[in-house]
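An example makes the point: we let one protein speak, the chain in one-letter code, the fold tokenised, and here it is:
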Amino acid sequence: MSSERKFIKESIRRQLLKEHLFRETQRAGFGGLSVARTPLGTHISLIAERPGMVIGRRGATINRLTDEVETIFGFDNPQIEVQEAEVPALNPGIMAQKLSIALEKGWHFRRAGHSTVMRIMDAGARGCQVEISGKLTGDRHRTVKFRQGHIKYCGEPKHQWMRVAITTAAKKSGVLGLKVLIMDPDAKLPDEIELLPPEELTEVFEEYGEGDAPEGPYRPPEDLDDEALDDEALDKIVEVDAAAAAEGDVPKGPAEGEAVDAKEEAKPEEKKPKAKKAPAKKKEEPKAEAGPAPEPEAKTEPAPEPEAKTEPEAPAETKKES
């Protein structure tokens, strides 16, 4: 038998075991089942709302179930452990079974759905959803959903924080499908980020001792003296030059008696500034080539109009009319 067929067969066997135990412990409030293999046999953990009904008087019921699991389903040395549900209202299996019982007793589907959602949310769930599908009010099939709080339908939060249970309710009009989804009260969604206030951040920073503080931007001391730093740097440079001159690696400094400016000695060799590339200019409208600057035109005042010269009138000539 191939490995794939082996896994499929094992899954079918566990599903049939779950359905069988659900039918046998339905009145006790079946809340879930888990099967695990151990070196001593098969460990079956069963969650119920009323464990006493599963165990029975002097363990008669649980012994009978153990024999059925071994003979019918072929599990090696099964050991059934019954656990009580801590909060029944947060167990989707128990709430789905209670919803089924209420509908079979004749409750209206809206009343049953709303009451189930309110009980789940009052127990502290982050969110819940109840789905009822089937012939609710007429001959046509439809689905009604009752939702409150946060619900995740896909992704890692859905597999990590959502609990789902599916069951049925038999009515005269037909069978109704029931589905209950519950999100755990302690669910932490990826989009929920907790920001510490500034007061708590300062307290955390003060807890670190000297040398253990977290890395951060360097802040120079406020009482920094530039002249003191120059003197310290100058002393170090003079000591290094004196040691090098004693070894003969560096030419000796100026002769005694020559005045030397301390700041000039401390200055490193000036490097020739490299020619910087002119920054790219923005494209501008083409301008006319700049020629020699035109000489300023002399302001020419308007020439005064020449005065009309009055010549002495010539003696009037007498013309004879022809």
About this structure: The beta strands are 30-38, 41-48, 78-84, 127-134, 142-149, 162-171, 174-183. DSSP finds nine helices and seven strands in the chain.
